[in-house]
Amino acid sequence: MARLALVLLALLVATLVAPIRGDKEVLVLVENTNYASTHSLFFAQLSDAGYQLDVRAADDKTLRLRDWDTWIYSKLIIFASAIHDYGGAVDSELILEFIDSGHDLLIAVDSHVSDELRGLIGDLGVDVEPKGSAVRDHVGYVQSGGEVDHTVIASGEYGAIDGLFSSGPPEASTVFQGIGMSIPSDSKQVLNALGGSSTTFSALHETAITDAPNVAAAELALVAAIQARNNGRVVVAGSTAMFSNAFWRGPLQQHLGTKHAAPGNRELCIALVQWVFHLRGQLWTSGLRHHRVGETQTPAHYRVSDELEVSLDIKELVGGVWQPYQATDVQVEFVMLDPYVRQTLSPTANGTFSTTINVPDVYGVFKFVVDYARAGYSTLELSEQVPVRPFRHNEYERFIPSAYPYYVSVLSLMAAFVLLDFLFLYRK
């Protein structure tokens, strides 16, 4: 009894001492303390949204992401482009494990990106241009206060990502200064949230453009959004300056003469943060419901050729409120090794998706499967196993219409046999 009391006391002490993980706790790793003033508007936006920011130097020797099996933070922001070694117990392998466990990461780099961060971003499926490269635009550059710098550009090439821009992309262009990235053309998890215009390219500093490796606008990504298979999210921005106060405030005049009362940086950065922190593009479902047409209860099994009704409710998180989700590309499959039936679910105004399917004339163990993956939205994976049995002996039709000719032939044969017997026996 005394030993049990000691064990309980130890557990209580460990609970009180151990850090408590919450969805609002964010670790921010910065390169130097200047970010607290140069990016104060961005950090204030996060604080106003209720996030508890722990701003630390990236090489702080006391850094920890995890305490034994408990993650201390639920989200991570890295604004330390040139950092070569993290402090404390943090390294790239731990950050990847952090993402694999379903947590979120926001990284912003620039032309001084270190090999450490290049490797981490490469493991996430995004290729960063060589160190020292910069995105340039000799047509769409931005000038502020009479200064001209062709590496400060304005781009309005926002990606068509419904989950990221719930009410449409920003109307104003985003001011960008940093390094370019490229996304593999066959990637399904990595999305181009902001690309360059037709005159934007990437090249090394102080090198003739004809001699430097460069990336054209068609392949250039300025901001990449990554939706992991476990619904963890990552945003990689090629510019730390785009989050700064100077790029949020404006006004900035584009070389083409367009006057921006304010650039689209604030709106874009807020959208990126809300998306990566699962406040946008988040789907929820109540699960599958299925029964025979005309019934309401789910039976223990189905019979071949049954007509079934399948439905589920899907909600989308919009502005912190769950609202009915509307889409026309949600499908359900009836699978036994291979799909025997694949049907598109019809939506209603209240977010209920439903359809009717016919059980194939094959008995065995089937599964209802919904595997919904749409760019910018969290994935939905549902499956439910159901047995399908054949007809019982007393469930077959007694008279089959297609067999009527055979019935008539049998009856005619019997009638002919009786008539022949009658004539044989009674004819004189």
TrEMBL record:
GO cellular component: oligosaccharyltransferase complex
Pfam families for the chain: OST48_MD, OST48_N
UniProt keywords, alphabetically: Endoplasmic reticulum, Membrane, Signal, Transmembrane, Transmembrane helix
Annotated TM spans: 404-426
UniProt keyword annotation of Endoplasmic reticulum present: yes
InterPro entries: DDOST_48_kDa_subunit, OST48_MD, OST48_N
Claim: Membrane is one of the keywords in the record: yes
Gene Ontology biological process terms from the UniProt entry: protein N-linked glycosylation via asparagine
UniProt-annotated location(s): Endoplasmic reticulum membrane; Membrane
Pathway stated in the Swiss-Prot or TrEMBL entry: Protein modification; protein glycosylation
Topology in membrane: Single-pass type I membrane protein
Source domain of life: Eukaryota
Signal peptide stretch: 1-22
Domain OST48 N-terminal: 25-276
Assembly description: Component of the oligosaccharyltransferase (OST) complex.
Family label: Belongs to the DDOST 48 kDa subunit family.
Purpose of the protein: Subunit of the oligosaccharyl transferase (OST) complex that catalyzes the initial transfer of a defined glycan (Glc(3)Man(9)GlcNAc(2) in eukaryotes) from the lipid carrier dolichol-pyrophosphate to an asparagine residue within an Asn-X-Ser/Thr consensus motif in nascent polypeptide chains, the first step in protein N-glycosylation. N-glycosylation occurs cotranslationally and the complex associates with the Sec61 complex at the channel-forming translocon complex that mediates protein translocation across the endoplasmic reticulum (ER).
UniProt protein name: Dolichyl-diphosphooligosaccharide--protein glycosyltransferase 48 kDa subunit
Phylogenetic lineage: Eukaryota, Viridiplantae, Chlorophyta, core chlorophytes, Trebouxiophyceae
